[in-house]
Amino acid sequence: MKKNFLHIILCLFFSISYSQSDISFVQKDKSKIEISFKNKIGTSDEEYEQAAEIKNIRTGKTQIINNIEVSITGKPSHLEINDYNFDGFTDFASYHTDDGMGVYTIYQIFVFNPITKQFESLQFPSNFSPKCDMFCDVKVDKIKKTLTSSCRGGARTHSDVWKYDKNKKLILSKTESF
């Protein structure tokens, strides 16, 4: 009985201590990367701010990305890793559910630049006319090398399919509404 009780307590402890606000992975160049959120509450503007701290364990360098988008209603932010630009390097995203009814997830994507060894914000292209005005419910298709962003507008669901052109610029491939 004592073994079962100890097992239950340990499982509970580890499930509570697991957090998607801290992630680590080994980059393609064998660097171990650790990413965590650093929160600032009650700054001079009395705002809630969030930053991402990225540590490269191999080089000892730290990158801070300020102005990570956060929910204005206090919904938690999470981290996710993926290869968002299909270059073989691991990228990451910060995401949270929308502040309305919470029907979709808003992403802020950061891609790894192998030359500078830094993460850069993937800018939402403004020279296209997508149905979604931000990256929402992002799905990565590694076979087709596309990113799909889906959102709702009224009674319709919209999907924007993004891909990279030969110059490695993100372009809108197609838009669907249903």
Can you offer a commentary on this structure?
With 178 residues, the protein is mainly β. 9% of the residues lie in helices and 46% in strands. It contains 1 helix and 12 strands. The protein has one helix spanning 2-17; strands spanning 22-26, 32-41, 48-56, 62-65, 78-82, 91-97, 105-113, 118-121, 139-141, 146-153, 156-164, 170-177. The protein has a 4-stranded antiparallel beta sheet with strand order 1-2-3-4, with no helix packed on it. Strands 5-6-7-8 form a 4-stranded antiparallel beta sheet, with no helix packed on it. β11 and β12 (170-177) form a beta hairpin. The longest helix has 16 residues, at 2-17. The chain is globular.
Q: What's the multimeric state?
A: single chain
Using the alpha-carbon principal axes, give the shape: globular
Q: Name the structural class.
A: mainly beta
| Sequence of strands across the biggest β-sheet | 1-2-3-4
| Major beta-sheet overview | 4 strands, antiparallel
Arithmetic mean pLDDT: 83
Would you identify the regions where 5 or more consecutive residues have pLDDT less than 50? 1-19, 41-46
Number of helices: 1
Order of helices and strands: HEEEEEEEEEEEE
The tally of strands reads 12
Q: Specify Rg, calculated over alpha carbons.
A: 19 Å
Percentage of residues in strands: over 45%
Amino- and carboxy-terminal Cα gap: 55 Å
Helix content: under 10%
